[in-house]
Amino acid sequence: MANIGLSDSYDNIRTDKGFVKAYKGEIEFEFRDRNGQTIRQHREPNIIKIFAKEILAHRLAYGKVWDPTANTGSGGWVSHSIDLEEFAVKYIVFGASFDENGNPLDSADTDFYTPDSTVGSYTPIQLGVGAEYDGGLIKPVPISEPTRPLKRIERIYFEPTYQPAGTPLLTADVRAINNVVVFETTLTKDEYNGLGVTLNDYLTITEVALVGAAEVDSLGSCDCDPRDIFLQGRSTGGALSAVASGTATVTIDMSETEVDLIKEGDQVKIVAADSTASEDQELNQLNPYYLVLSKLPGGHDLQLDRVPVDADSNPITGSIGLLRDGFKIFSHRILSVPVKKSEDFEIVVRWRIIFN
């Protein structure tokens, strides 16, 4: 597959094997005043490619597999070990432009935008297909409920398009097909109005992500990165104890009883031994997240996609901690026009995915 950025907007993408169909999408912001009247709408195209993200691939799988030995040898459908519901899209997560003091920077924030001397304004940076930001957001808004809540998807519905029902170009018949799915949430008047540094530091929303993860209810006031909420270690707290060998294989300590918390295909975060999800002990790694390529059920050895190294490219050895990463970004968009939030407006956010 060619390296295509997530902000590409072509209906068909050229690869070395010709053209492939893309999944197109669109983000819509609808602003409503104190009386609930729509005063402005802003839409931006977005693209979601079937080969670029993992969630759709996981959701295509059925919840059972065929076991030839079930039913005393006659065969039968049995449940497998993957929690498919975890991979369903459940959240819309926001990033914003602000400095170290929490003051908004708007489009002048170079983390998101670059000055364009030709047009005399700022243009959004291009996102690639890799994990430039450890697979997360550039500058996520810290979660602190109720004023900056983790935004759950509050409504899902389908919209139709009309396509030929008979032979294309020969018959005029058309039919409605529900092939546009819409995920919706609402930023209320008292949500996302700033980081609390001043009374008027209203957040400038600059990035939006559609996320699949486990169900999470009330969080309290953790003031944390939304991704940290979905990092899992042992049920009693702390990362799973493991040993790095200086190779792509790491081994979970034999004393750990929850070895099947991490499965083949998961992403893990390597941290210091005895660290927790809320601590930032990343052993001086440029990217502490790794994909588990191979792990047997009940096994302790994990084959990772690369050798864990520090920022100086030295292989990491000795005791480490492992956290399972349950935060799965389906799509990530930097807005070409930042959205300013305030207590005067309610903003309905809709993410459409158009299935070609």
What is the strand and helix layout of this fold?
Elements: E1 12-15, E2 18-21, E3 23-32, E4 38-48, H1 55-60, E5 64-67, E6 76-79, E7 89-97, E8 113-116, E9 121-124, E10 155-164, E11 174-187, E12 204-212, E13 231-232, E14 240-245, E15 249-252, E16 267-271, E17 289-294, E18 301-304, E19 317-325, E20 328-340, E21 346-354
Antiparallel strand pairs: 1-2, 3-4, 3-21, 5-6, 7-12, 8-9, 10-11, 11-21, 12-20, 13-19, 14-15, 14-19, 15-18, 16-17, 16-19, 17-18
Description:
The chain is mostly beta strands and 356 residues long. The protein has one helix at residues 55-60, and strands at 12-15, 18-21, 23-32, 38-48, 64-67, 76-79, 89-97, 113-116, 121-124, 155-164, 174-187, 204-212, 231-232, 240-245, 249-252, 267-271, 289-294, 301-304, 317-325, 328-340, 346-354. It folds into two domains: 12-213 and 328-354, no CATH class; 231-325, no CATH class. A hairpin with a 6-residue loop joins β17 (289-294) and β18. The chain is globular and about 60 Å long. The model is unreliable at 1-22 (pLDDT under 50).
